[in-house]
Amino acid sequence: MTETVLTPPSERAARKAAPGEARAPRRSGRRRIALPYLLLLPALLLELLVHLVPMLMGITMSFRELTQFYIRNWSEAPWSGLDNFTVAIDFDAPVGQALFKSFLTTCLFTVLSVGLCWLLGTAAAVFLQENFRGRGFLRTLFLVPYALPVYAAVITWAFMFQRDNGIINHVLHDQLGIGDSPAFWLIGDNSFWALLVVSVWKGWPFAFLTVMAGLQNIPRDMYEAAALDGAGVWKQIRHITLPSLRPVNQVLVLVLFLWTFNDFNTPFVLFGKAAPEAADLISLHIYQSSFQTWNFGTGSAMSVLLLLFLLVVTGVYLLLTTRGRKATDV
Amino acid sequence: MRRIRVAAVGAVTLSLVLTAAACGGGSTGGSGSNEQPRTLTYWASNQGASIEVDKKVLQPELDKFEKQTGIKVKLEVVPWADLLNRILTATTSGQGPDILNIGNTWSASLQSTGALLPWDAKNLEAIGGKDRFVESALGSTGAPGQDPAAVPLYSMAYALYYNKKMFKDAGITKPPATWDELIATGKKISKDGKWGIGVEGSNLSNNIHQVFVLGKQHGADFFTADGKADFTSDGAVAAVKQYVDLMAAQKITGPGNAEYAQNQSLSDFAKNKTGMVLWQTASATFKAQGMKDDEWGVAPAPVPSGQPGAGRQTNSMVAGINLAVFKNTKNIDGALKFVKFMTSDDEQKTLNKAYGSIPPVKTAQQDPAFSDPALAVLRDTLATSAAALPQVPEESQFETVVGTAVKELFADAAAGRAVTTESVRAKLEKAQQQMPKK
Amino acid sequence: MSRHVQPVPRSPMAAPRSFLWTRRIFLTLLTTFVVLPVYVMISSSLKPLEDVSGKFEWIPSAITLRPYVDIWETVPLADYFVNSIVVAGAATVFSVAVAIFAAYAVSRYSFRGKRVFTVTVLSTQMFPGILFLLPLFLIYVNLGNATGIALFGSREGLILTYLTFSLPFSIWMLTGYFDSIPRELDEAAKVDGCGPVKALFRVIIPAAKPGIVAVAIYAFMTAWGEVLFASVMTTDTTRTLAVGLQGYATLNDVYWNQVMAASLVVSVPVVVGFLLLQRYLVAGLTAGAVK
Prior knowledge:
- By secondary structure, chain A is mostly helical.
- Chain A is built from 15 helices and no strands.
- Chain C has one domain: Orthogonal Bundle (MetI-like fold), CATH 1.10.3720.
- Chain C has helices spanning 17-45, 49-52, 66-74, 77-108, 114-123, 129-147, 155-179, 183-191, 196-207, 209-225, 228-233, 241-244, 256-288.
């Protein structure tokens, strides 16, 4: 259980690999050295082409004045030094202020969404751990939101959240009588909650799936031993299940965090090109600052800042969780 | 060890080559060539009820063109949601269609990128000259003082559509001609879950069209004569407030309209829940919603007082679609021929009839098909009392930021928050600060 | 190598009432939450247009199959379907193949730069899509101009893009899975005279089937649902479903019933395939990602 996933699998393998290498017949030394690189080559080329080089270009763009006047021949766009960055982080000016607000909104949104996804996923997986009638059906049903294409799922939610004609207000207002007048969900302050609901609905089955997989690695005799000691179900969950899931959670939370923070499809399909202020997530905000206003320089600068932030958070997170684990696991 | 270094050097070189290739930019050459004289690619905007309908309308005409000239036209109907992004990426890469439809309000913005072929005297001559087009439509083809970036293809204007049954039920005999009358009429209708007039509060472009016209009526433009953003003048603030007040103060617009962005106000109209809408060519939609042609009427959009006309009597923006030639075209002669074909009298009549719009070509406009009462209102509006949206490079930013400001004000109004001159001014102030500095 | 699909029962003791009731209530609420949109989707797809543009009703006033007929007319849905299947299918096949090779290298060999490789690949998960949408488009266009291979606007370009999108997660998951396969197995194969590549095909791949299926599902779904890149990189003839669905919201109208019907039609193949293969997904994740 001390093996962790995110501190790369490579390392685990590396440790195991050493003796294996030694045992392998020493036929052609040069070929053996070249082989791993050959195996990696396709992946490397693809990553370079689709991820790394475009990203380097994106970073270059962030140092240029790439407005509509220059997009046609952007290698001739004037260099603007750090101008795009100063505009983006000048929190006294409207552009910087809006970006900062959007950043805070995204942070809050991500924390809530990841938290709820994790909670629902874990609870459902734990409740479905034991066999009972209908368990297989529920397990299948719970995966449906994950399997639906994003566009189809979110457009349905947009349909449901309409103020006058949507099912949500039909239930809340008409049938349960909550509130004096039907609430707005797609504009105004409530839009934040609408977005959260959709995001959790889409995201929690992944947590469910992962935790379910994690549960299978808990040795059965641990439960049996606990039962012999007289521990009830709740106690078993608290003292065996949850602690054993810790390595799973470490990965799960990080992956959910990155996906949620960068999520573009959900707000874009739900709100269209201009999200309400309360639900102005950073990815949509950047899209608006570049594609809608044709200022790709500033948009790129904002993306670079976002990337830096995510790198730092991930680094710190891995550092903290791995160290914490080492301390408790031993 | 050496191998690794070689691999690393290789990877770095490769990425440099790729970057260099990409930095080369796609746009070489000034104004097109004739390398591929047999084919053309045409991006059409989605004008009909669906993309498939558009293909059925356009394909026979393109076949006709092929028969006349031997040039094969490859048609792609691009949905509105994608059109501007597609044009942007085409502009950046130089890899685009030969001819394309653009919303006429985008003309100046796209013109400033240098991606479109300027219609200088020589090019205009090739399609029969500038004088074939209606004056107002030409006003929306690019920045003043420069060669147009596009030529008008379809024209539309705003008009007041009213629900005859609801008018009759409320005892109203004639459609309002001024804003005061409109509010009085609206108040008579607005009760028991019915509302006077519908708006599309979350549709940024529609918001812009409406407040632009109201701005004209208050004597305000949203840009100064030298092209600087000027959103906070008293006239502009009054215009925006007047529009939002339909919901906030006059209460003749249902609060639910604040979130409308997909023409829900037209379904409300068809369902006898909303008495009036200000719209451009709504007839096809009414039909799709199950409304008969004699169940609705059309009147000119309201003015402060008197008759629609120029200046403060403006009651519509010049709406429409322009046809542009992409500068990188490899078949410039063919492209010009195609534009000439599409703006010819016959094609103008056929296409505008199919789409319910008005031909911007004078001679085609005389066709009796365009003088039925509904279209006559639109035609007269275009001829006498429509004004073009500001023809400045920052037009698309203007639509985004001011359109969003109006959307947020509607959201405030719908939530029951007060909309005051100060709050309107503050929103517009914020919008103005988001505009690029000159 | 114990990869049971059946979960481990927690305790031989009978569960207390408090637990059973909590479970019952929780699962009921969760089921409602999950099912609600699905119900709305199905019921709205059977309503006439007037009904869906009016107030929501639980029970349709009239049931019509019209939307299911109309969807093929409004938008060339069948063409989009073919495009999506080709693009997502090819992206999946290639992505899985590339990931298998890479994961094999990472799992079985120690070599210089391994750590850099894994960290870099994983960190691509942090790139905001907006940052490289435009550059990627430019690269494709210029590669096309230089080599004559049409990458932008073609299925090939989209396949290339999507296969790379799912690559990092796939490599990472498969590496974990391969690690869980005892090295003695490939050693034995090598003793039998298999070279490393043969050992991969003879031993590792068969043993890693659940992991490979899990990765394939992930790759397929990534490609099937992507909107942003597809909206810019496709043309009329190569447009995928995710973008094509937006065609039901036109300039003048939103055909909600058709949107719902089309969404269902589009979802059914993926959902069915997904659910059929779900046991592999759990098994694959079990050994691969979450050990």
